[in-house]
What does this fold into?
Amino acid sequence: MGYECWNRTTSVTTPKSQSELTAIADEALRGQPGCETARVVALVPLPHVRSGRNWEIPNVVLGDSLISDVDRGVMSVHHRLGRKFHLAGD
It folds into this structure.
């Protein structure tokens, strides 16, 4: 009888300033289907989070986009960018 051993590799994320990460998230959101007119105004640091995705997008300006499309887009952006970037400390 054998067994498998799963190793979880920790991914390394790139630090970005709040303005850099906001611009990246804004561009990524507008690239999502149905979100062409939506806009990320700001990112907010998550308190007490020291590694990984330490930020969130609390508010989005919808523009002419449907809320369901923007909701889906924000979740996708969080998931994808959260694996690549973290908010750099001051």
